Amino acid sequence: MAWPLLQVLLIAAATTAAASSSGTTPDGPAPWPEQFHAVLFTNLTNVSVASTGPPLRLHDLYYDWPRRRNLNLIRHQLSGDPLYDVEWNNGTTFYFDTATCRTLQVAVGVLPPGWLSGAAYLGRETTGGIDCHVWGKAGFIVYYEDALTRRPVRWNFLDVTGIQQFVMSFEVGVVLEDDDQWQAPAHCFLDDAANEDDDHIAVSNGITMDAARLFRNFAGAAAAY
Ligand SMILES: *[C@@H]1O[C@H](CO)[C@@H](O)[C@H](O)[C@H]1NC(C)=O
Ligand SMILES: *[C@@H]1O[C@H](CO)[C@@H](O)[C@H](O)[C@H]1NC(C)=O
Ligand SMILES: *[C@@H]1O[C@H](CO)[C@@H](O)[C@H](O)[C@H]1NC(C)=O
Questions:
Q1: How many domains is the chain built from?
Q2: Does the keyword Signal apply (predicted)?
């Protein structure tokens, strides 16, 4: 089945469910807590795009708004070398593993806790057995929130990667204190020519396909509104 059609059906189903539900509808998704640790199961559902890398990943997301930093620790299935995606509020992102590093400069900082404000309500739907309110924002994301606890449950990116992320755990207030984990390694700071040689293709491809990168793009787009 074509994926956009599935999306349309999903939204239709959610809308029908909402119409028959008697529960109250919140004004919008709860803002993200200022600090949390989430474990996300990631499925890059458009495998044609994913053909250069495994489509299944585990993300450890450490969101730290007071310190204006965000860390995604990305483990591809059965890979022993996790990828780090460390974002700073000055727009610098370091994307590295033990051998390679990419530094990106974007025009925006870390996503603010209220980044979902203004999202459009799509209805109510059960996903992973959890009763959720569903919102969409800017043709970019469909976001599922636990109707009971208001914790995030899942989101789907509406781009060619078809990345879907499922929140497996969500620990409010948990901070990654170990500064060594945030520090980009020495091989991120080599001169340009050497860095170029060190780059391998998996990382440079991965960069355009990863959820962390999509959030970064979204922050850029949102800032332009
Ligand atoms: C990942 O997504 C693909 C495409 O939708 C699906 O066929 C597959 O079952 C999913 N895998 C898991 C482990 O959820
Ligand atoms: C942004 O901040 C990080 C962390 O402090 C630093 O490593 C990086 O060099 C800074 N980038 C710029 C462009 O100043
Ligand atoms: C999946 O990826 C291919 C490119 O590999 C793209 O042409 C297609 O539109 C994508 N599918 C969806 C549903 O976005």
A1: 1
A2: yes
pLDDT score for 207: 47
- The token pair that represents 138 in the structure block: 């800017």
Does residue 84 lie in a domain region? yes
- Domain annotation covers residue 74: yes
Q: How many CA atoms lie within 13 A of 69 on its CB side?
A: 16
Say how many C-beta atoms besides its own lie within 10 A of residue 183's C-beta: 12
> What CATH number should be reported for the domain holding residue 44?
2.50.20
> Ligand 1 atom closest to Cα of 47?
4
Strand order in the sheet with 92-96: 101-105, 92-96, 83-88, 69-76, 56-64, 35-44, 163-172, 152-157, 141-146, 130-137, 120-127
On whether residue 49 sits in a domain, the answer given is yes
Task: Please tell me the predicted confidence (pLDDT) of residue 219.
Answer: 61
Ligand 3 pocket, residue 3 CB under 6 Å = yes
- Decide if 203 contacts 95 (C-beta within 8 A): yes
Mutate to test the pocket of ligand 3, among 46, 52, 156, 161 (most ligand atoms within 8 A of CB): 46
Q: What's the pLDDT score for residue 83?
A: 92
Which residues lie across from 164 on neighbouring strands? 43, 156
- Using one digit for the tens of pLDDT, what is the confidence trace for 141-195? 999 999 999 999 999 999 888 899 999 999 999 999 999 999 999 999 986 544 4
Domain containing 75 equals 35-114+151-223
Tell me the pairing of strands 83-88 and 69-76: antiparallel
